[in-house]
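Working notes for the structural subgroup meeting. M.R. asked for a predicted model of this chain before we commit to crystallization trials. I am recording the input and output together here so anyone reviewing the notebook later can reproduce the run.

Input as submitted:
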Amino acid sequence: MLSTDPPYYNNIGYSDLSDFFYVWQRRSLQTIYPRLMSSMLVPKAEELVANPYRHDGVTGAHTFFEEGFRSVFRRVRESTLPDFPITVYYAFKQQESNATGEASSGWETLLEGMVQSNWRITATWPVRSELTNRMLSQGTNALASSIVLSLRPRPQDAPAIDRRGFVSTLKAELPQALRELQQGAIAPVDMPQAAIGPGMAVFSRYSAVLNDDGTSMTVRAALARINEILDEVLAEQEGDFDVDTRFAIAWYRLNGFGKGKFGDADSMARARSTSVEHMDRAGILTARAGEVTLLSPAALDEIYADTPYDPAADKIISAWEVTMHLSRLLQSGGIPAAGELLATVPESIDKDLCKELAFLLFAISEDRKQTKDAVEFNALGTAWSDIVAASRTAVTQLTLE
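Returned structure, recorded in token form:
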């Protein structure tokens, strides 16, 4: 049986890092472990990382890493118990982009090794494994979860499929899988990573995915298609929101929380059967001197510094407004304050849509390189389960009072 957290491509060279400690340990332990401490520094040649300085450049390092992974998974395939899956942990964020979409050499090579060694992915679990107070997470959108892939041997008679059939299957299966991930405790920043699991589960069930010219689709091309469908799913969710929220999403995508022209906002609002004046009265935006600005959580915090916001008394309420207030209270008062607000949100607002909105706004702010917004919306999506639990406690206290 095997459960492994493999090396992350070129992310960390542990043998280089361990030299810092080894040189001191060797001074005190060489007489006790003469064979183990026989070298001046830690052996590095066989370490399975893509280090271009050891393997004649980037291409050589990639080849070494890829061949090593294929060898590992092939040997495991030959010796593993058939009754149990193997599990592989991965927590390396996609960070490379090219003309065909977002990709990661680490993910690509890991998955290539699995697929070519006749493994298929059967399940995916995001596991909250990374401390939010670690140095890497301070003020950044660092991953909060590891992604655990469950693998079983792919049957020898697994069929092939053409590219069109693969994409159709992805579009049929991936949206539901992504919604199930959203309903769990996954952070928005982890969604692109987690989406790889269900997407590659489709890809890896086939012996080959054939392009129009008869060649086999690469893992990188499959990852690009998975990312495209993830974007489509998030975009399709916009249709579930009320008209004011749909306007605010579109305006945020164009201007963030910055200023935009009134004429543009007016045209966009009319196309969505609402009006700028209506949303100004609703407390979603301000329209002044020919300019329109969405009210950010920070701006709302100033407006409601002395008078608390009461969703139950809000005559013109929307999912957008609730989400902005939840975000500001989470930042200023923590989970208890956000939970108290959520407890008073009327039933006319679908609370699950507020969570979906946090995920969507995180994705938009990431694309816009709005790091502060992305951190705040990611925090809201990450803390959602705790906020819901706090809201139930608040409801119980209100009932007793």
